[in-house]
Design goal:
The chain is mostly beta strands and about 425 residues long. About 10% of the residues lie in helices and about 40% in strands. The strands form 7 sheets. Strands 1, 3, 5, 7, 11 and 12 form a 6-stranded mixed sheet that branches. β11 and β12 form a beta hairpin. The protein is globular, with a radius of gyration of 22 Å. It starts with a helix and ends with a strand.
């Protein structure tokens, strides 16, 4: 119950912040843009975290449903640990100009839906980051710089402190039941912190889901150069369940999770197998991408431009949940609960149903009820979850939050 209340509180605070603060979440604001992806070059499973002063490169891709190339530009903003824009000026943050044209593009080939695929690579030969921290890339049309078309979060890390830890189902609220608990250790030998009880902030998320975000401001105790975070209520999480999987890699035959494929001009349609709630089922392991999706057309050497857009039909066989809305959660919905990810209830069929235009690929997804009155997926202590831990540091007098460390901790491994 403690963890559940924390989750509800975090979600409520996130909603309030969205009402009164600038939106700095990863998002697409123009519906003609689709399939926003980000990855570290050479490692598509890595989170979008660059190492400062390294050879790391970030690859950001997206499509616009169009027959013509658009003249787009991008800018980058430095943000605080809570993703509010920092007060630093560009000259403090970047070497080079903090804007550039999007020059790398390619037209789709042999697809029923025509689109242009754009790519941005950071940093490049004319630009580099001087500071660690949170960053927000924003794309706009060169003729209208005030209208942001899409934006993507990423981070730059110093890796000055070591971050370790474990995730266990033997928690302070239950034992091998419905929760998981983290215990964390920071090794500060590489960067001694003068006042770790006031100058350090840890931000922890489960599977990059914003509503799961926990902010830890004090270690439990110190042990030499090690900071220990133990038995902290904020580090107890509902265990959730493995992501569901589906693949739309072919328009000729049904792949994983697909019942059948139809062509209803002008789109191919993938009708997924009907989903049912899993809260009352026993846990079943399934290989997971922890909510990610990968663009793929099974017969293509270049899926970025040869994968088609199809209408994917999701169905959840679940009676209406009074006072709650149901959403699809995963990278393809930017892990946000809004109108773009909501699954409406259809009273004529007695099911939740949603059709989405998605690029062919392999997708992870889960159903989320908000508020969480009904556990559609259930909470299984055996679930393999990916916990991200970001360590921010702001010394007295500093004007920005440095990202000193970043690590991933997996449960069930």
């Amino acid at each position: 119950m403690v963890a559940l209340r924390s989750l509800i509180t975090a979600a409520a605070l996130a909603c309030m912040s969205a009402l009164y603060a600038e939106n700095t979440s990863t998002a697409i604001f123009d519906e003609s843009f689709r399939t926003l992806t980000v990855q570290i070059e050479g490692d598509r499973l890595a989170p979008p975290v660059l190492t400062l002063n390294s050879s790391d490169r970030l690859i950001i891709g997206f499509d616009r449903l169009s027959d013509e190339r658009d003249y787009l530009r991008y800018t980058i903003r430095h943000c605080n640990a809570d993703w509010t824009p920092s007060q630093l000026v560009d000259a403090e943050v970047f070497d080079g100009f903090n804007y550039a044209d999007v020059t790398e593009y390619a037209f789709s080939r042999a697809t029923t839906v025509h689109y242009v695929h754009y790519t941005i690579v950071l940093p490049d030969s004319e630009f580099r980051f001087r500071l660690s921290g949170n960053y927000l890339l924003q794309v706009y049309d060169e003729s209208d710089p005030d209208e942001i078309l899409l934006q993507q979060r990423f981070m730059v890390c110093e890796n000055a402190v070591g971050v370790g830890g474990t995730a266990t189902s033997r928690t302070d609220v239950d034992y091998n039941d419905s929760h998981q608990q983290l215990e964390l250790q920071l090794d500060t030998r590489g960067y001694p912190v003068r006042d770790p009880f006031n100058d350090l902030t840890l931000v922890v998320e489960q599977n990059y889901y914003p509503a799961s975000r926990r902010v830890i401001t004090h270690p439990t105790r110190m042990q030499g150069d090690r900071l220990l975070y133990e038995h902290q209520p904020q580090l107890v999480f509902p265990a959730s369940n493995e992501y569901r999987r589906m693949e739309t890699v072919s328009v000729q035959f049904p792949s994983m999770g697909v019942d059948h494929v139809e062509y209803n001009a002008p789109y191919y349609n993938h009708y997924l197998n009907v989903d049912t709630p899993r809260f009352s089922r026993n846990y079943s392991y399934d290989s997971t991408q922890h909510g990610r999706f990968f663009v793929r057309e099974y017969n293509s050497d270049n899926s970025d431009t040869e994968a088609d857009y199809t209408i994917v039909h999701f169905t959840l066989d679940q009676p209406e949940i009074p006072g709650a809305a149901v959403y699809l959660e995963g990278d393809f919905t930017h892990r946000t609960c809004d109108s773009n990810s909501q699954v409406p209830y259809n009273p004529s069929t007695g099911r939740y149903e949603r059709a989405m235009l998605l690029k062919q690929g392999a997708y992870n997804y889960r159903y989320v009820a908000v508020p969480p009155k009904f556990p559609v997926e259930g909470d299984k202590y055996q679930t393999v979850n990916e916990y991200s831990v970001a360590v921010y540091y702001r010394a007295p007098g500093e004007r920005y939050d440095r990202l000193l460390g970043y690590s991933l901790i997996f449960s069930g491994r």
